[in-house]
């Protein structure tokens, strides 16, 4: 039986609205974020990370508490002047590669990243070989016009 | 307390159906093998009886939901007396057991249709096709009766049910599974035809002709089912996304990709007798993907928002079923395929080659999606750690593979069968190329930002549309177009429309997260959105906070939107119901967030240009399929 | 039969092999990258007495167990009896890390259910948890004399985990 983890309870609540608190008064609505440029960077970084609680959502969209805490951490790291790569390393050091939606390129993922293109190459090569071989053989088993007409007649018939 | 016996009837119907399916599966196949006519002829009546029994069983389950019979465990777990009637019926397939019953019901339905519409088909073939379908049904019925009985009782009955997840209480969600399953299950017919022809040793063009309309019909439903799921996610989940490369989304997309390849391959096999082995293999793979998808969703092997509650026993059972069905099919293929003969010859530059090339890319695309979806499992099984493979991977890999397909789409229909002249092709297409390049340069400039990716999107989509228009013009000069031709144009143009939608929304959407008090306005996409008020509201089984927003341009109000935050009685989690003003060229999407200090609210607004073209494109494709199926060649008249 | 026609069957068998193995794995579990790495340093106030603080440094030279818990966590109640048993056996100091909790709620839970911990540290904003890779309470770490994390239990501690994993590891680390 699945364990009664808090993350399963929060699983149901994972609908997105990143929450930021901001106080201002104006007729033209003010952005929730105090620094939209920073928020943009937060979104682009956290979009490629996985929420560990609701594991089918990105860190950017998840409403779970852990996601909010992690976004707070990322915001702090951005303010400290860390680069995107350093922020990713921060997360991976604590949660492992699992938290990255973009699998890092390392020996265990070579097959993953190269695979599709190897497949494509192999497919085209196989196709060319097949076509070349086929052209030397000739046979006709397609339906002749006559046979086609007979089938049409059969299909149209009332029996 | 008295309990109704009706659920028991439903259960009994399933047991009977199992017996009939065994007869349907075993006897006709042996009969065809040994030439025993008395066993051959059992196929049709067995199929008909199976269908009736499953219809009864399914109707009874629906009845139990309708009358709120909480002495049935499945009903108690997925429904609730407060649930509006419509959603009570949708809840029938809201969980594992009921959706599986739907699966089998639709399977017997498809088999029934084949039985009724195959009066002119050779009776050995009929016996084999229906026999294969019977075997599949047998496997699934065993699974249901052994591990997933929807009629299991809950005694004493619950006072009230647990209710349906609020996310699922939505019209889109009611139709999404049936559509999808019609597609998944429909590929079983092409599968059955393929197996039947392998068994008979007669792998010829006639088989392809029979398979084609069934496959196209299944493909139409799958297209609609996927589109419906995507559209639902967009308007229901509150953040405007429409595709997440979630494992279960992928599980439906892979059969679609293979099915599209199959459709085109069948065309070649029918017309030119070529690609028989390849087409048969595709037919087997398409249905295998359907079964694999069923396994992935119900076994707990992958994490997904879609996944049903899992039970290791079920996972093992489906895996065994999957292994037997697919394993034996591929074994049969390995045995019999080499014996088939080649079709007509064709040169390197011909429609056949182009279709085959497109097939290669489609299959590679499906393979890549499979690789990405299963890779975390692969790494874990090898004890190499845990990784995640998400949208960044799929987008990076899928797009480059599909570019050649889109490019070829515009060229294929111009190429002649057997052999075509490259120069002649270029002459036909240069105008389309010019239109494409112009669009690729102009439109991004008009929309405000030029990137290579967006230019590529417009290049390909306009390339396809221009080529299609030119084909239509040429066709009208020659004569009235066949429905087949119309279908092809709609299908291809549908994809182009889809690509335009994806490109536009991906590149030019605007999003703003703002704090709004009544009277405040936010601008997005050239529109102004003004918050009028926020007040409480009441629904049949929820309490809500509803915002009133005026949407307008140049001072004039065009529309009023009412986004809500709902608290369902049955759930502690608040649900966001976004308000969307949909239009041909854009959606404006308003989502109400948390209350803030000072009588203000967190509000998220989106401007999404051409987003409805995504699903519009899918509709066009489905419509194209419909025209293709209705072509005069396939019109059969039922026995009067 | 010709070789190339068998390829689909072979690929399928390999696939089924992986799926069969996958049935026994939990795709949701996130193993910790901190195993065999130093326990991240921190200094926070204690739950019972805010004027006192706690840091992993304090237990350098001993094998000890850090259990992340909270009063709002349902699964924590499940494992509580095991923690009580562990503290009674006195194999190693048991330190609690009260994660994103209210002091009053936490103290009340300990009073009601019994306090198995030598002491509990109070991680108010969850920062310590993040540094330890906590993603779902309860989680438990076994830390050796040099301050290196040697074992992590994700989820409630069961009798089996205690007897088959934790006690043996603690015994072994003590010998080092």
Please tell me about this protein's structure:
The complex is a heterotrimer of chains A (159), B (640) and C (176). By secondary structure, chain A is mainly α. Chain A folds into two domains: 6-99, Orthogonal Bundle (Helicase, Ruva Protein, domain 3), CATH 1.10.8.640; 107-156, no CATH class. In chain A, 51% of the residues lie in helices and 1% in strands. Chain A has helices at residues 6-11, 36-46, 65-79, 84-95, 110-134, 145-156, and one strand spanning 30-31. In chain A, helix 2 (36-46) crosses helix 3 (65-79). Chain A is elongated. The N and C termini of chain A lie far apart (59 Å). Chain B has three domains: 1-169; 172-340 and 351-415, no CATH class; 510-610. In chain B, strands 2, 3, 4, 5, 6 and 7 form a six-stranded antiparallel β-sheet that branches. A four-stranded antiparallel β-sheet of chain B has the order 1-10-9-8. In chain B, a hairpin with a 3-residue loop joins strand 3 and strand 4. Chain B is globular, with a radius of gyration of 26 Å. Chain C is of the alpha/beta class and 176 residues long. Chain C has a single domain, classed as Glutaredoxin (3-Layer(aba) Sandwich). Helix content of chain C is 37%, strand content 18%. Chain C has helices spanning 7-22, 74-89, 103-113, 127-131, 159-175, and strands at residues 44-45, 53-54, 64-69, 94-99, 119-123, 139-143, 149-154. In chain C, the strands form two sheets. In chain C, strands 5-4-3-6-7 form a five-stranded mixed β-sheet. Chain C has a two-stranded antiparallel ribbon with strand order 1-2. In chain C, helix 3 (103-113) links the parallel strand 4 and strand 5. The chains are: A mainly alpha (159), B alpha+beta (640), C alpha/beta (176). At the A-B interface, strand 1, helix 5 and helix 6 of A face helix 9, helix 13, helix 14, strand 1 and strand 2 of B.
